[in-house]
Amino acid sequence: MVCSIVVSGVTVRFESSVVLDGVIFSVNRGEVLGVLGPNGSGKTTLLRSIARAINPTSGEILVFGRPAWDYTEEEYSKVVSAMLPNWPGGFSMKTYEIVLMGCRNRSRNFWWEEEEELEVAKEALQLLGALDLFERDFDKLSSGEQRKVLIAKSLAQRTNIILLDEPVAYLDIKHKLEVMNVLRTLAELGKTVVVSLHELELASGYCDKLLVLNRGKIVAAGEPRSVISEDLLREVYGVEAEVKWDGDHNYPLIIPKTKKIPKEEIVCLR
Amino acid sequence: MPPHFKQKRLRFAAYLTTLIFFMSVALITSLMIGSFALSPNEILEILFHPDKNPVAWSIVVNYRVPRMLLASITGFVLGVSGGVIQTLTRNPLADPYITGMSSGAALGAAVAFVIPFLPIYAIPFFAFMGGVSTLLLCMLLAKKANAGPIGFILAGIAVGTFSSALLMIILALVSEKAHGILNWIYGSFSTSTWTEIKVALPVVVPATLYLLAKARDLNLLLLGEEHASQLGVRAKTLWRLTLVASSLAVATCVSFSGIIGFIGLMAPHMVRLLVSSDNRFVLPLAGLTGALLMLLSDDLVRSPMNPIAEIPVGAVTSMMGVPFFVFLLLRRGSRFGM
């Protein structure tokens, strides 16, 4: 079986700093892979490399057995969609105009959107519980609402591989779950999902496999129950916490050991 | 069809109808006015019965019609290219004049003008080289300065002023041909003939058609190369080809009409303000708006109120354009939305 994505020895250097260091992993069809790691660990760079926003310094990325950079833009946009949050603002566009941009890859009409594309856009927003934003100005939405619109735009590309960089940031718990539920079902429909997350419990509960990055290197990978551990929290995140697993679900209970900051440490901010 | 689509189309139709109305008025006026005033009836008579008044027929057909056409074509090109350049540079304050592209094109044309025995068909090519190189230089400087949209404008001023200075030097060196070059500095349609239209059309028509056809992809390019590529647009290729097409069209027009500022800035923003910021609406309507603004400005400089000497048309467009530029600058600074 050909893996959807094979990342072999990918290294990304920006000037002198190494952001990704020989990352190796693969994702199968129908899997949700969660990418974890503290701020600045290389999660975004990894997703951007697979999305071809960055050309890695060395190493290779295979998408359905073919090097990512061998695809043309048209071809790649039909295989891989990416929700990267560095979306430029300030263009006074309506929400649906942005979601419809996702449909460009399969559009037969070079000038107008077809009726069918409008249905795609509606379904994408509907799934994420954001249909009421359809005609709102994108710039005037809250950060969470904008996130949902950008996810809808990626879904509207109807690709087999979906990359999402922190899709649930800024969302409330209901919408966090909603987004993850949509991704889960899309994976069951045979799509491959790679999603970077900061929410450990959510990642553990929804992803088939987890991959933990720290300073550009993979430090742990595998089933959620084998990855999320007290050692991992201590070594990667620098957090002392107790991790409890119970029941047959994959949601860990993470109880941090509260570290009190003595009042004497606050001097100037008083 | 969602209501907003209908609303957009409604506004599109309303805007277009208004444009066509004013356009017809401006077109008829441009045939009427001048040193030899004609009434609409007289124009009809001249056009349908040329033998009755051959002198008037010659004035209308050999001077006023080409002047009217060249002004419309130039306005259309500046409007469309303004919208395209704003998209390509992702800067709402950009236009062929502000980016120094027009000055560069005029410089290129002036160089072609002083080279002896060069056919008239070569002038647009020289103007194109001048226009493209100034625009690229301006973008390079803006990138190095890294000061956002305002940095871009400052780079444009620097590059444009430098090209204008070179233009002045050429002007001083070849004073016997000075009148022609003087026209480029301030912009004028006073010497328009059919020859210029014959040279301009084969370049301008395919270039603008290409730009209009790419309007949907240009919307994606507005998001930057990275996002556009991910959405399936060959961003680099599209960026280069649209830049070449708009520079070619602008340079061709500039080489005949001279440096006419601010049409390319005003026209696209008027459409964004009144219809939509979708390039599929902006580009064609900005073209028509540009043509209308240009015709009105040209009519104004030829009006009987101005009997002594003809004011350069570029002065009139700048009179309108500068307050508009200040309005954009104060209202949103660097934003596209209106």
Automatic annotation (TrEMBL), chain A:
Pfam families for this protein: ABC_tran (PF00005)
GO molecular function, one term: ATP hydrolysis activity
InterPro entries xrefs: AAA+_ATPase, ABC_transporter-like_ATP-bd, ABC_transporter-like_CS, P-loop_NTPase
PANTHER family: HEMIN IMPORT ATP-BINDING PROTEIN HMUV (PTHR42794)
SMART domains (alphabetical): AAA
Domain ABC transporter: 5-240
Alphabetical keyword list: ATP-binding, Nucleotide-binding, Translocase, Transport
Signal peptide positions on this chain: none
Name by which UniProt lists this protein: Histidinol phosphatase
Automatic annotation (TrEMBL), chain B:
Transmembrane stretches, start-end: 12-38, 68-85, 97-115, 121-142, 149-174, 243-267, 308-330
GO CC terms in record: plasma membrane
Domain of life where this protein originates: Archaea
Compartments where located: Cell membrane
InterPro entries in the cross-refs: ABC_BtuC-like (IPR037294), ABC_transptr_permease_BtuC (IPR000522)
Short name of one Pfam family: FecCD
The entry's keywords: Cell membrane, Membrane, Transmembrane, Transmembrane helix, Transport
Record-linked SUPFAM superfamilies: ABC transporter involved in vitamin B12 uptake, BtuC (SSF81345)
Membrane topology according to the record: Multi-pass membrane protein
GO MF terms, alphabetically ordered: transmembrane transporter activity
Gene3D superfamilies: ABC transporter involved in vitamin B12 uptake, BtuC
Family: Belongs to the binding-protein-dependent transport system permease family. FecCD subfamily.
Stated name of the protein: Iron ABC transporter permease
